[in-house]
């Protein structure tokens, strides 16, 4: 939950290289472990929503811009508008 | 049953046709469907398995909605077939209203999954582990219907950074046609005609020592009143039985990259007060003892291998089964179950999974006596036996 009381809603790209790199670098899991972690929490009732998957970066960015509390990650080649961005290089947060 | 199976198959086809599963506005829909096969070389285990059986399947459909940023509603429908248990009857597996006050306190009301040991809450989601079945010593599949959920109230949260708790009070589910009753019926030559569960108290505390390593302790304290008719000699009477049960489980799990090592120890105190109609009373008190060690390794995205060794004694003071044999006329090896299980898991993709398992058994406590009785009433069980299990699961 964010400090303002809104739920954190995670958005991710379905089977993308940026998803795999992000998980490996910052979460320490591969996509299957990430998936199973959320499925586990879902089926034991410790999570009520799993991270939202999207097929492409355009729909992900649109969703994050329209949804309170949402956060996601895309490749640096995109320049998303109407959302706050944090640029991340492998091992470095800017 | 057929109409529900068709419904589930339609859901499965729709979900596979390019629609990303589990996403629908503020309502999440998830589930799984699985079909298994079980074959034993001796003894019937969970179903009529000496001839091979496909009566091993289950399915679940789960809905979860966010009403406000702190209030959630969830419900899960479940159906299973395990021999003559379940028979694909759709049940309301659990439902809960969940209010998240802060990280230290959340409140749940409804029919809540029981936090028994580390894995009871997720026992049906076998796509979360390598083996098809959890170790019998702590998670007896036959008794799932009595230990899966509790109607009542729960409190949960994180007290400190690495310490979490979950407390529940409520009533367990136990019916005369359930797995627990079937176990008692077979052991005592009785027929349970009614079960009246009383208030139960459950607590689960877990602590994360370091990244990947957690330990925990849980306890489940319950009581029941059984009405039963006993036909095994020298009895032929109706009985009311008070049963008190106090179960403690000590758990540890270590996850390092693709390796998972876990182990649990359970001690379960049972007290029976038999009140024979118009006759004498009898009191029996004993402790079940069980433990297992499990190791799983994921070699790559599609293949995992697991092995566990599980031991369960019906009475820790009668490990050889001498009292059981002399009192109930059963084989002495009915007093224990020692099981080695080797499992493989093949992940076809994010949704489909195939599992194979082989179970080497010494002892028959993990079988139903009623499934292994000849027409003349004699028990036909062998001490050493092997089971082969296979299962296909689709989850979304």
Q: What's this model, at a glance?
A:
The complex is a heterodimer of chains A (94) and B (396). Chain A is an alpha/beta fold and 94 residues long. Chain A contains three helices and five strands; from the N terminus they run E-H-H-E-H-E-E-E.
Name the descriptors.
heterodimer, A: 94 residues, alpha/beta, two-stranded antiparallel sheet, 3 helices, 36% helix, B: 396 residues, mainly beta, 16-stranded antiparallel beta barrel, 4 helices, 17 strands, globular
Mean pLDDT across every amino acid position of chain B:
86
Averaged pLDDT of chain A, please? 76
Strand element count of chain B = 17
SSE order of chain B: HEEEEEHEEHEEEEEEEHEEE
Number of helices of chain B: 4
In the sheet with the most strands of chain A, the strands line up as 2-1-3
Which structural class best describes the helix and strand composition of chain A?
Answer: alpha/beta
Overall 3D geometry of chain B? globular
Shape, per Cα inertia axes of chain A = globular
Subunit arrangement of the protein: heterodimer
Beta fraction of chain A? 15-25%
Explain how this protein is built.
The complex is a heterodimer of chains A (94) and B (396). Chain A is globular, with a radius of gyration of 13 Å. In chain A, the strands form 2 sheets. In chain A, strands 2-1-3 form a 3-stranded parallel β-sheet, covered by helices on one side. Chain A has a two-stranded antiparallel sheet with strand order 4-5. In chain A, a hairpin with a 2-residue loop joins strand 4 (88-89) and strand 5 (92-93). Chain A has 94 residues and is α/β, with parallel strands linked by helices. Chain A contains 3 helices and 5 strands, in the order βααβαβββ. In chain A, 36% of the residues lie in helices and 16% in strands. By secondary structure, chain B is mostly beta strands. Helix content of chain B is 9%, strand content 57%. Chain B has 4 helices and 17 strands. Chain B has helices spanning 2-16, 144-147, 179-188, 322-328, and strands spanning 27-40, 53-66, 71-82, 91-102, 105-113, 149-160, 163-172, 190-197, 199-210, 213-230, 237-256, 259-276, 281-298, 303-313, 336-347, 352-363, 384-395. Chain B has a 16-stranded antiparallel barrel. Chain B is globular. The interface between A and B is medium-sized, with 24 and 32 residues.
């Amino acid at each position: 939950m964010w400090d303002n009381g809104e739920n954190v809603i995670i958005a991710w790209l379905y089977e993308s290289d940026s998803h795999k790199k992000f998980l490996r670098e910052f979460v320490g899991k591969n996509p299957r472990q990430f998936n199973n972690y959320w499925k586990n929490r879902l089926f034991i009732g410790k999570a009520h929503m799993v991270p939202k998957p999207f097929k492409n970066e355009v729909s992900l960015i649109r969703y994050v811009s329209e949804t309170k509390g949402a956060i996601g990650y895309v490749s640096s080649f995109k320049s998303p508008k109407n959302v706050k961005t944090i640029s991340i290089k492998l091992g470095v947060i800017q | 049953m057929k109409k529900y199976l068709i419904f589930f198959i339609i859901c499965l086809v729709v979900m596979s046709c390019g629609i990303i599963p589990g996403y629908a506005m503020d309502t999440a829909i998830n589930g799984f469907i699985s079909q298994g096969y079980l074959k034993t070389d001796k003894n019937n285990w969970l179903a009529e398995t000496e001839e091979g059986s496909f009566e091993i399947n289950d399915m679940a459909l789960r809905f979860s909605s966010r009403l406000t940023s702190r209030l959630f509603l969830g419900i899960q429908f479940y159906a299973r077939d395990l021999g003559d248990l379940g028979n694909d009857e759709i049940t309301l597996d659990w439902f809960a209203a969940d209010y998240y006050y802060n990280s230290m306190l959340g409140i749940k009301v409804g029919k809540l999954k029981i936090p028994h040991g580390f894995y009871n809450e997720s026992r049906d989601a076998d796509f979360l582990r390598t083996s098809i079945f959890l170790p019998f010593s702590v998670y007896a599949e036959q008794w799932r219907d009595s230990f899966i959920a509790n109607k009542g109230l729960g409190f949960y949260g994180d007290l400190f950074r690495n310490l979490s708790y979950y407390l529940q009070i409520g009533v367990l589910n136990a019916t005369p046609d359930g797995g627990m009753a079937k176990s008692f019926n077979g052991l005592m030559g009785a027929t349970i005609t009614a079960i009246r569960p009383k208030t139960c108290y459950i607590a689960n505390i877990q602590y994360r020592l370091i990244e990947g390593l957690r330990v925990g302790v849980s306890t489940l304290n319950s009581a029941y009143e059984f009405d039963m008719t006993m036909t095994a000699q020298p009895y032929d009477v109706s009985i009311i039985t008070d049963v008190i049960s106090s179960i403690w489980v000590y758990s540890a799990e270590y996850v390092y990259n693709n390796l998972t090592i876990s182990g649990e120890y359970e001690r379960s105190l049972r007290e029976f007060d038999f009140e024979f109609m118009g006759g004498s009373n009898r009191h029996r008190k004993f402790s079940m003892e069980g433990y297992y060690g499990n190791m799983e390794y994921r070699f790559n995205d599609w293949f995992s291998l697991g092995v566990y060794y599980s031991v369960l004694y019906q009475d820790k003071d009668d490990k050889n089964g001498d009292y059981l044999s002399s009192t109930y006329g059963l084989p002495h090896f009915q007093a224990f179950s020692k099981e080695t299980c080797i499992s493989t898991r093949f992940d076809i993709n994010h949704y489909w999974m195939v599992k194979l398992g082989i179970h080497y058994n010494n002892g028959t406590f993990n079988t139903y006596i009623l499934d292994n009785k000849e027409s003349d009433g004699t028990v036909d069980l062998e001490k050493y036996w092997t089971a082969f299990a296979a299962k296909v699961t689709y989850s979304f």
